[in-house]
Amino acid sequence: MAEGKTAIITGITGQDGSYLAELLLAKGYNVFGLVRRTSQPTQGRNLINHLMENECFHLVNGDLTDQSSIDNAVKEIQPDEFYNLGAQSFVPESWRSPTMTADVTGLGALRCLEAIKLVKPDCKFYQAGSSEQFGDVREIPQTELTPFYPRSPYGCAKVFAYDITRNYRESYGLFACTGILFNHESPRRGLEFVTRKVTMTVARIAEGLDEFLSIGNVKAKRDWGFAGDYVEMQWRMLQQDEPEDFVIATGETNSVQDMIGLAFKRVGMTLTWTGEGVDTIASDQDGITRVKTNPKFFRPAEVDLLIGDCSLAAEKLGWTPTTSFEQLVNIMVDSDVKVVKEALSNGQLPPVPPA
Ligand code: NAP
Ligand code: G4F
Fold first, then answer.
1. 46-67 burial, b for 16+ CB within 10 Å, e for fewer?
2. What is the per-residue pLDDT for 44?
3. Same domain for 104 and 32?
């Protein structure tokens, strides 16, 4: 054990959990990641494999749906800080599995707060909030004061988690706060999310493995940033003197169509778009169809536009995003081209985004 602070991270195997663990270890923390039991112990752990030899990095079994496992982790570890990043985080899945999403993503936060309240009330708590809480946005851009209007079971669960975090802060005096984070991406993003699905498919097309990208609503707009920047803000929120909720965003919005155009541009293809809605397609400079719309990727209720106002974080946390939208897309395309090339040269099958 290092002499520094001790932190628990739920969601350690995910995109943000892996970046946050690296950040805290570099700052001298002892990091304990909560992981769900799987029948194959190494399954899904590839983002943290490189940390397993670090003597300050530990895994502890637990599940956000199980109060005792969280209580036990807090009792044994006696953390100074607790980052609740675990969630069923894929919005379309939340319509297919709404009660599971409410249990993990909503009640999971309450279970963490209960454990802290009863066992270690001076532990600081970070809740991973989401711009999905704004949903059908009530104002543009969205700030910490914008009312919520979630559009999915996932968004509703995150609103509950936000409210209960504020309530435990006000009822019990816990240092508990929510970061309302807008979409943040990286080469570690899950293949089901739109940016990574696009960059992996573009890499596969560039290597001649696929012919076209099958996509949903390309008109939706998001405020996309780089995940590595965003975990630094999670940490900074817990270093404040007083707990406070913050919007973390870039302040720039782009459409899915813009994102796809940049990704193809990176591999030397210029797209021309035709049609509307489910009839939208895009062809490259040689007239080959490279993007086709598939109704199955449209959602029962869409969040059309997100753009955050991060003035409060700029003022109090010193927040300035370091990676532009085009740089982010280029980083992700280049990484996936490398992944595909390496797999092919090793005689392996390159990753395929879920259909
Ligand atoms: P992610 O890659 O989908 O990771 C989710 C993590 O939650 C995984 O480690 C997963 O573990 C874990 N998990 C799922 N169910 C669990 C359960 N029942 N018990 C314990 N752990 C469980 O998500 P992310 O992109 O890193 O996002 C981190 C957090 O920020 C999430 O809460 C997400 O909702 C929120 N958020 C993300 C963004 C974004 O743009 N990335 C924006 C706003 C908010 P397994 O490996 O076992 O599945
Ligand atoms: O990449 P997405 O699946 O992300 P979404 O729904 O915005 O949620 C992500 O960001 C949230 C923060 O706002 C997080 F809280 C949440 O956990 C997650 O990380 O979809 C982005 C947009 C949507 O409008 C969707 O309709 O892309 C559109 N889209 C169009 N075609 C598609 C597709 N999304 C996916 N996943 N797959 C498609 O084929």
1. ebbeebeeeebbbbeebbbeeb
2. 77
3. yes
Q: Is the CB of 109 under 6 A from ligand 2?
A: no
25 and 173 in a common domain? yes
CB 184 less than 6 A from any atom of ligand 1 = yes
Distance 82 CA to ligand 2 centre (A): 27
- In this predicted structure, the answer to whether residue 251 has a pLDDT above a threshold of 80 is yes
User: In the chain, count of helices (H) and strands (E)?
Assistant: 11, 15
| CA separation for the pair 16, 331 (Å, rounded) | 17
Same domain, yes or no: 10 and 142: yes
Q: Are 60 and 201 found together in one domain?
A: no
Least Cα distance to 80 among 21, 8, 150, 128 occurs for: 8
Question: Is the whole-model pTM more than 0.90?
Answer: yes
- Determine which residue's CA is closest to atom 20 belonging to ligand 2: 194
Same domain, 58 and 91: yes
| Nearest CA residue ID for atom 33, ligand 2 | 216
pLDDT in tens, 144-195: 999 999 999 999 999 999 999 999 999 999 999 999 999 999 999 999 999 9
Phi then psi dihedrals of residue 203, to 5 deg: -65, -40
Same domain, 19 and 139: yes
Q: 50: domain range? A: 6-181
Tens-place pLDDT, residues 276-300: 999 999 999 999 999 999 999 999 9
CATH number of the structural domain spanning residue 59: 3.40.50.720
Pocket test residue of 89, 146, 194 for ligand 2, highest count of atoms within 8 A of CB: 194
13-22, 44-53, 170-179, 280-289, range with the lowest pLDDT? 44-53
